[in-house]
Amino acid sequence: MKQLSDCSANNPFIQTRSLLAHLKPKWMKLLLDYRCNVSSLCFFFPPDLLAVPKHPYAAMENWGLSVFVEQKILLDAEVSSSSYKMELTMVVVHEICHQWFGDLVTPVWWEDVWLKEGFAHFFEYVGTDFLFPKWNMEKQRFLTDVLHEVMLLDGLSSSHPISQEVERATDIDRVFDWIAYKKGAALIRMLANVMGQPLFQKGLNVRTRLRCRPGNEAASVLVNPFILLPFQAMRSEGRDIDIGEMMDRWTLQMGYPVITVSKNQSEQLLTHYITVSQEHFLYGEEVRKNTRSGGLNDSAWQVPLTVAVGNSSSVCLESLLWINNRTETHRIGQMDDNTWLLGNVNQTGYFRVNYDLHNWKLLMQQLHTNPQIISVGNRAGLIDDAFNLARAGYLPQGIPLQLIGYLPEETSFLPWHAASRALYQLDKLLDRTDEYRLFSDYVLKQVASRYHQMGWPTNGPGSEGSVLKASYQTEELQRELIMLACSFGNKQCHRQAVAYISDWISSNKNRIPPNIRDIVYCTGVSLMDEDVWEFIWMKFHSTSAVSEKKILLEALTCSDNSFLLNRLLNLSLTSDLVPEQDVIDVIIHVGRNPQGRNLAWKYFREKWDVLNARYGEALFMNSKLISGVTEFLNTERELNELKEFIEVSGVGAGPALPRALEIVEGNVRWHRLHRRQFYQWLRKPPSSTFG
Q: What are the structural domain ranges in the chain?
């Protein structure tokens, strides 16, 4: 990386350089292994990395000089959290990946942008995993941050195939979205697991040797090189698998299936067979009826379904089944009434799995009695699938709530992270309802014992200096529990946060552990008086650490004071006090605050012309803003306001506004169809909530 400033020890550029000095040699070795033999004709020159104060994108992989906005590369090891270090590492790895997937070999046309972005996004997890194995990026964090997140978008009827036609220059921006990045990565990961890592790596080796010199490729090149290998047809369970045909099903049609697995109830096929069916997963029963009548997505997917058979003490059997039709019957082994089925083992496939209610009950009993029998990835997957299946109307509302009743016994970060994401989704829907306290009390009940057991981190001087020594899983579980406890109103959590802020103000020494500073700042601002807001505002302007500036600014949006929130919104857009790239985050975070929701929504509509002119050309910016201020809307009045806004001002926003409209319609529909059932379950006495 180029040194752009003075050589003082506190220079954040030097801090970043020391991290990259560790990253680059190991990362080069990993990609050389994947790309081609060192002795081949492929050559790679590692890029210099440049931090700039203002940039329309997070980073850009220019050949030889990758450019990053400051927040995505500058690291102050004394104040940056482990999550920030992880994010920085992944952005750097992503852009270095693009030196192969994007710069050395480029898609032949824009419709295949997902190839370069999907590979770079997938390998940023593989590469970070290689550098820091304790972070468990590819097998664990990928699930919650990529797979679960993109399936939320791809379950909408306003989604689109990953490969999109591009006929005009104005079409280009829309192909750069999370479907291209995250779905692309998820499909590549699924393919790698279907083929097996050795064959997948060998195929990529052949592919990149064929393209050693800079050039272009079409999507078909992803699979065609495998024809050159001696094992040109994959055989699994006695079947020839055409990888090209399989991937076409996933890339040329939108969305993904929900796979329903159940024991066969036929008297002739009682103990050895299962019935498997697939249908296009979409949120909302009404939406599914309309799309069926419209003929959307008539073709089935070719699904690599792994199925485990287990009981209370062990997993007895695991099989790979290829599902090609709407409904199929498969023989998998001996089962009885106490045998449970588990689909999509370790969540390597890009689909949701549903079961009959008896099997859900068996899985819940397993989690409550001995959760370790089910892998940590599948525990997280069961939670995410259950909440989303219930939200879409495939399951009763009580099933996911029953499922997470085991969480007080959960010791791993990933299932807690999956649960917290689902609970925050519900919180958006419920935080303005009359019976909200029923929900918040239920969440606090699940969190209490593990939160008190984990406690709060200590801030040992100098203990944050080495990325390599970070005990990421423990730190992140502790952080997740503190965030849930403070967000949903745990009094002890509130007292601890206030004590930290008070100590900082009185001593002018920030002794708050970096990994939880954002939680403490936000909690303190929400609970304490205006003087604390002014103190945080002052610290925001005086600090030079970009990661610290970010969380201080976001903390200012947590106030319950409407005057302060309005002041912050106006200062952000009309002054130089807030960096231009942070204005969108201010508006979004004010909207996340129940006290600021109406302010942010009103401000967004009033300032739309200014915001659209400033951010409309920057990838992801407009989409991020629109989704951020609308995803919390859930009343008929707010839905009508959104429709009116789209009709009057929605020109030029691309697909973001139709997607926002569908999400808000879904929020309103959930309230109409499911809120009553949801609260009825929460009102049950604890002794009757399971079974």
A: 12-252, 490-557, 559-690
Residue appearing with tokens 């104040």: 79
The phi and psi torsions of 217 (rounded to 5 degrees) equal -145, 155
Tokens of 354: 């549903």
243 close to 195: Cβ distance less than 8 angstroms: yes
What sign for the dihedral angle of Cα 671, 672, 673, 677?
Answer: positive
Other Cβ atoms less than 10 A from the Cβ of 14: the count is 16
pLDDT higher than threshold 90 for residue 222 = no
Query: How far, in Å, CA of 13 to CA of 239, rounded?
Result: 55
Could you tell me which of 337, 288, 331, 332 has the C-alpha nearest to residue 311?
A: 337
Q: Count CA atoms closer than 13 A to 541's CA, side-chain side.
A: 9
CB 275 within 8 A of CB 281: no
Instruction: Tell me whether residue 638 is one of the annotated catalytic residues.
Output: no
**Bridge partners of residue 315, in order along the sequence:** 310
The count of C-alpha atoms lying within 13 angstroms of the C-alpha of 480, restricted to the half-sphere facing its C-beta, is 26
d(CA 305, CA 352): 11
What are residue 241's DSSP bridge partners?
Answer: 234
Residue with tokens 């919104």: 569
**How many angstroms from the chain centroid is the CA of residue 621?**
17
Q: Is 13 within 8 Å of 74 (Cβ atoms)?
A: yes
The C-alpha atoms of residue 301 and residue 279 are separated, in whole angstroms, by 9
Catalytic residue, from 61, 78, 87, 95: name it. Answer: 95
If you search the block for the tokens 């730190």, which residue do you land on? Answer: 475
Burial bucket for residue 413 (CB in 10 Å: 0-12, 13-18, 19+): buried
CB-based burial, 207-220: b 16+ in 10 Å, e otherwise: bbebbeeeeebebe
DSSP label at 162? Answer: S
Integer CA distances (angstroms), 70 to 56, 540, 544, in order = 12, 16, 11
Distance CA 97, CA 556 (A): 36
Distances in whole angstroms, Cα of residue 3 to Cα of each of 15, 16, 59, 244:
11, 10, 18, 46
Q: Where does 12-252 sit in CATH, by number?
A: 1.10.390.10
Sign, CA torsion 598/602/605/611: negative
Question: Rounded to an integer, what distance in angstroms lies between the CA atom of residue 515 and that of residue 83?
Answer: 7
Question: What per-residue confidence (pLDDT) applies to 40?
Answer: 35
In the chain, the amino acid numbered 420 is S
| pLDDT tens-digit map of 367-377 | 999 999 999 99
Q: How confident is residue 654, by pLDDT bands cut at 50, 70 and 90? A: confident
* pLDDT single digits (tens) 155-177: 999 999 998 888 777 777 778 88
Which CATH number is 559-690 given? Answer: 1.25.50.20
